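I am sending you the entry underneath: sequence plus fold tokens. Let me know what the token row says about the fold:
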Amino acid sequence: MKNLFKLNITLMVLFTLFFTGCKTWIDTEMNINPDVPSDVPMKLLIPSMELSMAYQIGGIRAVKTTNIYMQQLNGVARQSAGEAKYILSASDVDDIWRRMYYQPMMDAKKIIEKAKAENSPHYAGVAKVCLALSLGTMTNLFGNIPYSDAFKGDVAVLKPAFDTQEDIYKTIDILLGEAITDLGATENITALSGDIIYTNNRTSWIKAAYALRARYALNKKDYTNALNYVNNSFTATDKFVMTFGTSNAEASPMYQYATVSSYKNDIKMCKTFIDKLNATTDPRRTFYAKILGTAYIGSPAGSEDANASGLGTFNNSANSPVILSSYVEMQFIKAECYLRQAVPDKDAAAVAYKAAVAASVLAVTGAVANTAWMNTNINIETAATITLQKIIEQKYLALYSSVVPYDDYRRTGFPVLTPVAGAGSIPARFPYPQTEVSYNTNCPTIIDSNQKLWIFQ
């Protein structure tokens, strides 16, 4: 009995110590990982957001796949060969979907929330530009995507609803309009820091916001507003790019795929693209493609012919920048808007067209375009001869290694491309990722890859 009594007393003491004294003898911070801080300052979120955004937008799924569809590149082996035959499965796109949502878009939402709480709108402005660009890229690939229910981190929204593409486009324009206001705010508590694209230059970010507004207004056939936005965007010396380092670990995304990875022989320059460059001895050809022997040779679209030129230094160098938008793009938008507005101004369209090509040659080669080449191939266009097809075909050559040619093709049908034999038409969209198909009952059902997106109908 005494032993039982002593046991009960001992247990009572232990329970008392546990419930009343645990704060004094248990380290409450023992489960906190110092390498994973619970609160990250905005100046550290900014570079993470920018780098991950550029890496995905300029990477192997967005650029490589769409450039294969556009016959600028050709897949000659493994998965890339499948893409050249328009085989892109739901599991193939899981990576870009997951990374875009979990990295740049989630970071952008966190920055926007923190900036509001800290009365620091300059940070919010940068984040809204990046969020708008990320949303625009994703919706142009997939169509309807989650936004209103996304980023909440709550069990109730593990299966977020999909916003319509029309609503996403409205959100993009709202974000960009707010970004311009935020970046111009005179009251701002925490000075903008950490920006690795424009080194905290708010004027440059405002121009970038206008450039993106112009791009997405053009897609909506809002030529009047698109033209106004262009006029508030980039000058000839401006650019919106992410630069990369010279080591393999810090290299540009296409270089890592086409030169460093085990898939480096899977893509070659496509015959369709190379033939267009060869037809005029285009000065950009030397930078876009590697010479093979004494010639620039393209692999026929959909073939597995690897006896072709590889990618050139333009996008296949360690420090090749990812071009997010540019003065070149703005001049092409201006040319199209002048041509397609209610009262066309074909003279102005021809002038902007010539400026766009000249700017592209300078940007790609580092040298002013040869006058004779310009006069023979570009400057001959006048109000009487300029056409939408000519504008888009030159834009196709100038905006290689971006997703824009794929958007333009679905908008306009130019350039005229022949689908690969036996594979039907060029895909009009990406499939939804397998993770959404399997686990999110709100994921839309699509008939096939030929189902047109709302914005391109």
In short: The longest helix spans residues 2-25.
